[in-house]
Design a protein that fits this description.
- It is built from 12 helices and 10 strands.
- It is an alpha+beta fold.
- The protein has a 4-stranded antiparallel β-sheet, with helices on one face. Strands 5-8-10-9 form a 4-stranded antiparallel β-sheet, sandwiched between helices. The protein has a two-stranded parallel ribbon with strand order 6-7.
- Helix 1 packs across helix 2, helix 2 packs across helix 9 and helix 3 packs antiparallel against helix 9.
């Protein structure tokens, strides 16, 4: 289920397509300003998540995801979109637009179907040709992609995920922040137009008072770690996005690369979702980076599991008018 309002112009439609991108906790932490020949994407820091994302890494990754959607959507309207990140000031992305004869992107039709699918996958391997397409899509300027499909490597990643998840689950600030972004019922999801809809994760759809109480009873390190172990083991592989430098420009580029990876996966009928715990917990991220063999200046940005499986209900989006300035 998604609600976006009605686009009133081609430029508004580009924003509508952009906000279908992925964002941390589905916070939709972006604002858009439309000009005659450009659209600016700025961070909305009122929607930041300081417990899970203290350096705003995920905020800028989310901006990159929105920019990448806009690139593919622009071609469908006869425009070439050129996103440029300004590391100064508020860290905005200016997407310059000009007429083009380029063909429509083959990933355009995947924008409305892409989702972070938090359910079980079928455990079957992905072909070498498909892995090559995913790797090409997920690689960018200063961003490399590690595709881990060997079972021993996947089990090693699982160990880092369990360790980091246990830290987060024992952090009351993290749990409170996560709960604030969970939309336990359909009415709540429709009203807010954002957040993590419980039904999209395969969880019961309940009134908030009951869902919050049930979460307190059953949302435990043990239950979550068991779920992650099962879901990682029925995935075809793990994708790790790595930045050559840890700064906002690279985080934006990592977001673009992830969104392109996700669109390509969607076009191939492959599901994916984030398992970012090892890159979110500061004490574990250096250990994970060392296991990957990264240099001291590199940063593991995103961890994603992928494989084939059924679609889940879609999370909501706010109307275009709500994200315009």
């Amino acid at each position: 289920m998604q609600s976006l309002g009605t686009a009133t112009s081609p430029m508004h439609d580009l924003v509508r397509q952009a906000v279908l991108a992925s964002s941390s906790h589905n916070t939709q932490c972006w604002r858009f300003r439309i000009a005659e020949k450009s659209i600016t994407i700025a961070p909305d820091l009122t929607r930041r998540c300081p417990a899970v994302d203290p350096d705003d890494h995920h905020v800028f990754v989310s901006l990159g995801c929105a920019a990448e959607n806009m690139v593919h959507a622009a071609l469908a309207t006869g425009l070439h979109a050129d996103p440029r990140f300004d590391p100064g000031g508020d860290g905005m992305i200016t997407v310059n637009l000009e007429a083009t004869q380029e063909r429509i992107s083959p990933l355009f039709s995947a924008i409305s179907e892409r989702q972070c699918t938090r359910g079980d996958y079928d455990g079957q391997p992905i072909s070498a040709a498909e892995l090559s397409q995913l790797e090409q899509a997920g690689t960018g300027d200063g961003i490399s992609l590690r595709l881990l499909t060997a079972r021993p490597a996947i089990e090693s990643v699982l160990e880092y995920i369990v360790a980091a998840n246990t830290v987060q689950m024992n952090d009351t600030a993290f749990v409170a922040e996560l709960k604030s972004w969970i939309r336990f019922g359909a009415d709540e999801a429709l009203r807010t137009g954002d957040g993590l809809f419980a039904g999209a994760s395969g969880n019961p759809v309940l009134p908030r008072w009951l869902g919050s109480r049930m979460m307190g009873l059953f949302f435990t390190p043990k239950s979550e770690n068991e779920k992650y172990a099962r879901q990682i083991r029925n995935s075809a592989g793990i994708a790790v996005f790595v930045s050559e430098r840890s700064n906002k420009a690279h985080w934006v580029e990592a977001g673009r690369c992830y969104e392109r990876f996700a669109l390509q996966a969607t076009a191939l009928g492959i599901r994916n979702t984030f398992l970012n715990q090892p890159v979110e917990v500061g004490a574990i991220r250096p250990q994970f980076a060392a296991w990957l063999g990264l240099a001291s200046y590199q940063r593991p940005d995103l961890v994603v599991r992928f494989g084939r499986g059924p679609a889940m209900p879609l999370s909501m989006r706010r109307p275009v008018q709500a994200v315009l300035v």
